[in-house]
Write a structure and sequence with these properties.
By secondary structure, the chain is of the alpha/beta class. The protein is about 30% helix and about 25% strand. The termini are far apart. The structure holds ligand LLP.
């Protein structure tokens, strides 16, 4: 967690706002983000890359609230998007097309058309069929699509298997061995202009070595493609920098060390460098606050049953991920800590945030905050169990604003349509 979520006078605050003030207005569960943390994380990365011709293209998938995008976009960030929806969010936040890169393994012709019409910095193309499709769409619009080829470097990023993307068995990218051939093919397509190479090996990467291996490959491929006559002027090195979720986690590579590595391997190539971080910017900038509904004694353990669930914060259920849990009321020094299972109300056993977590006494009616929930939190929320989508709040100093209100049950139901042949009307 950053210093933006700290206790003050016995109460957890987001910057200078006591969490209970937010809860009194919005209720729980709720996501709370710190503008100061978002700003600092972006600026730290930007300055770690200083001296390089670079652009930080924030990976929208990590936290796509338009207010968050607006804040980051106003600080000079570009955006990395993977759908027409994310593209529209970035544009709604005031980010111009020439600052948006379009990633993703399955872009549809409709998505390509939207981005080509609206403006785009580059498409990160992941296969030959996609290349041919993009060429056809671009030609039909009488334009030319800027393309970076995403390669699959066959590198193990040493992360959770579900978020590794750089191994040969993963669905992403073009095998390096095929890049020359695909680039030759692209050079003959009038709707395509090859501008660069892209790589993204995975997420929550906690060591520099996998990045270093990928950057070496990028440097080699740049020289090879240039030798073949391609004008490689941009390298997109992807995202992936991890954050420490557990207090006992070794610290992730620092942005400075990461920047130095990029400088060392790619700095002399005379290319623009794009980076696509998500978690490193938004991860520790948010918490999810939830209330304890019941404290229940099971046969062999106690359960804290919260009003937040796996549909609100999926990471523990999906990846077995760890999030720190902080009571909103500061524990007293004499409090006796003990193990407890922290679970949600959803009707499956997988709806558990933590097993046997050592916590101070927390009772029904108390609130807890899940730390490091700013990335891949609200964006992965669903309405499972017909629980309306979780609201979001952005704090800045003493101010806070609701940036997504709590959805109403009524709204949710009104989206469903009962056919007339069922109602007899
Ligand atoms: N660029 C591309 C092409 C990506 O696929 C991703 C993440 C990023 C950038 C940003 O990666 P980051 O800097 O945030 O590590 N839901 C998972 C994470 C999935 C990441 C998917 N791709 C989680 O909760 O851990």
């Amino acid at each position: 967690m950053t210093g933006d979520f700290l206790y003050h006078s016995g109460i957890l605050r987001a910057e200078e706002v006591p969490i209970p003030d937010i809860v009194a207005t919005v209720g729980t569960p709720v996501y709370v983000y710190s503008s100061a943390a978002l700003t600092r994380n972006l600026k730290t990365l930007q300055s770690a890359l200083s001296g390089l011709d670079h652009r930080v293209c924030y990976s929208v998938k990590a936290n796509s609230n338009v207010a968050v995008l607006r804040l980051l976009g106003d600080l000079g960030a570009g955006m990395d998007v993977v759908s027409a929806g994310e593209y529209a969010r970035a544009r709604a936040a005031g980010v111009s097309g020439d600052r948006i890169v379009f990633s993703g393994v399955g872009k549809t012709p409709q998505e390509m058309e939207i981005a080509l019409r609206g403006g785009i910095r580059q498409f990160n193309v992941e296969s030959e069929p996609e290349l041919l499709q993009l060429d056809a769409v671009a030609r039909s619009l009488e334009t030319v699509a800027p393309v970076a080829f995403r390669v699959n470097p066959d590198i193990d990023p040493e992360t959770h298997e579900k978020i590794s993307t750089g191994k040969a068995e993963d669905k992403f990218g073009i095998p390096c061995a095929r890049l020359r051939e695909v680039s030759r093919e692209a050079a003959g397509l009038s709707g395509i202009s090859v501008v660069g190479i892209d790589v993204h090996i995975g997420s929550q990467v906690m060591a520099l070595a996998p990045f270093e291996a990928a950057f070496r490959i990028l440097a080699d491929l740049t020289r090879t493609l240039r030798g073949d006559g391609h004008d490689i002027r941009r390298l997109d090195v992807g995202g992936g920098l991890g954050i420490a979720y557990r207090p006992s986690d070794p610290p992730p590579p620092s942005p400075k060390a990461y920047g130095d590595l990029i400088r060392r391997h790619l700095g002399d190539l005379g290319v623009e460098i794009d980076v696509e971080p998500g978690r490193a910017i938004a991860g520790d900038a948010g918490v999810m606050v939830s209330s304890v509904v019941y404290r229940k004694s099971g046969a062999d353990r106690d359960f804290l049953i919260l009003d937040g669930a796996m549909n609100d914060l999926l990471r523990p259920a999906m990846y077995g991920a760890y999030h720190p849990i902080m009571p909103v009321r500061e524990p007293a020094p004499e409090d006796a800590y003990g193990p407890v299972d922290v679970v949600g109300p959803v009707c499956e056993t997988g709806d558990a945030f933590a097993r046997r977590r050592t916590l101070p006494p927390v009772e029904a009616g108390d609130q807890v905050a899940f730390g490091s929930a700013g990335a891949y939190g609200a964006v992965m929320a669903s309405e499972y169990n017909s629980r309306p989508l979780v609201p979001e709040v952005l704090v800045s100093g003493r101010r806070f604003s609701v940036i997504r209100p709590r959805a109403e049950v009524e709204e949710m139901i009104l989206r469903d349509i009962v056919p007339e042949w069922l109602t007899g009307d």
